[in-house]
Amino acid sequence: MGEIVNDETHEPRSSSMSLAMRWKHENVRVVSVIAAVAVVITLITVLYMYGASKKTLSIRVDGQEHAIETRQDTLRNVLDEHAIAVGAHDAVSKPLDTEITDGDKIVIERALPVNVIVDGQKKTHYTTKKSVSDALVSLQIPVKTADKVYPGQDAAVANNMDIRIVRVSKNVEERKVKVPFQVVKKADPTLLKGKTKTVQKGKEGIVVQKIEKVYEDGKLVYSQLVDKSVQTKQVNQVLAYGTKKEPEVVVLSASSPSVGSGKGGKVGFDYKDMLENVQLTAYTEQEGSPGAKTASGTKVVEGRTIAVDPKLIPLGWWVYIEGVGFRRAEDTGGAVKGKIIDVYYESKGAVRKFGRKKGHTVYVIGPVKPEAN
After folding, report:
1. If we measure between CA atoms, which residue out of 222, 133, 208 comes closest to residue 169?
2. SS3 sequence, 300-318?
3. Which UniProt keywords apply (predicted)?
4. CB-based burial of residue 248 (10 Å sphere; 0-12 exposed, 13-18 middle, 19+ buried)?
């Protein structure tokens, strides 16, 4: 058999390896430079990214301001990183999940507990406000203008302080007050002393008062009169009292001295008393009783008989009545008192015609009728 001979068209293996070695040897310096540049670029990138993520913040808490460096991305992580606790009622100037940027300023206000006493209840609230007034507004606790706040609304909020609100209410009530009338006394010279007479009846008045009542937490603390008006005017009672003295009663007798002289027609006479402002009336006896007797025992006679008050004119005495003539006091009557004289007439017609006369003067003469000289 013959020997098989391979015709190899490629270079031998040793020849390929030599080529690679030669290329590596020739380009190793280029590769080294490229690798070094890549490392430098990577390092610069890392350093840049590291430097770029660093932030400086200003955080003010509990009245103190702190400068903080951080690479955290949110405010919550920054606070956790630096162990700054935030209570449920504390106020933070930015939401905790906000992404922070370099130069941010964060303010944390600590909430203080306050005890609010109002409307009969005591409840603890938390507030970050500095004054009592602002705290009540933020807590949405209404305070009316008239309400009282202890301590004052301008007071500073303190830890665990008590804030008391006193509800103040007012109302106006009307009430009617009776005003008693007064008795006014007035002298009356025409009324006998010791006698009284009601000239004007008294009447109570009514005054409407408006009373303002002030309540604090439902309890009355004070009331005051704010207005009043007269509904019914008071009328005083006027009482007249007599100042006139009782006339002195002169007991006349036949021995009483004459006090003057007069003339009735052609007949002159002396009189023992003179009565002025005498009232004259007339009377007659009932029909069917002719010749009736008087109080003095005589029979009534027209033109002679008169009824008198025996205290002023004694029965049986003669008088002279101006405008009437001589008459004799023979009778009395229940209505004949004082300066009243009842003149007798036989007919009712004459009585009606005579009527009532006032202002007459009567002269009391005596038991003997004067005769013409």
Report:
1. 222
2. CCCCCEEECCCCCCCCCCE
3. Membrane, Signal, Transmembrane, Transmembrane helix
4. exposed
Per the DSSP assignment, residues forming a β-bridge with 210 are: 174, 227
Q: For residues 319 and 225, what is the distance between their CA atoms, to the nearest angstrom? A: 73
Hey, CA dihedral for 93, 96, 102, 108, is it positive or negative? positive
- Local mean pLDDT, 10-residue blocks, the chain (373 residues): 44 56 64 74 58 78 85 87 85 86 88 92 92 92 92 91 94 93 90 88 93 92 92 92 74 84 89 94 76 85 94 94 94 92 94 94 94 73
**Helix ranges, the chain (H):** 13-52, 75-81, 132-138, 348-354
Please list, residue by residue across 157-181, b when 16 or more beta carbons sit within 10 angstroms of its beta carbon and e when fewer do.
beeebebebebeeeeeeeeeeeeeb
Hey, what's the torsion of the CAs at 279, 285, 287, 291, to 10 degrees?
-140
Query: Under 8 Å CB-to-CB from 284, ≥6 apart: which residues?
Result: 344, 345, 346, 347, 348, 350, 351
Alpha carbon 310 to chain centroid, angstroms: 70
Residue 119 CB contacts under 8 Å (≥ 6 apart), including other chains: 165, 167
What Å distances lie between residue 241 and 193, 205, 236, CA to CA?
7, 25, 16
> 255 — alpha (psi -120 to 50), left (phi > 0) or beta?
alpha
- Please name which of 97, 50, 103 lies closest in space to residue 74, comparing C-alpha atoms: 97
Taken in order of first residue, the domains within the chain and their CATH numbers are: 55-109 (3.10.20.90), 112-166 (3.10.20.30), 172-244 (2.20.230.10), 260-366 (2.40.40.10)
Average confidence score pLDDT of the chain: 85
3-state SS assignment for residue 32:
helix
> In 206-326, which residue ranges form alpha helices assigned H by DSSP?
none
State if pTM tops 0.70: no
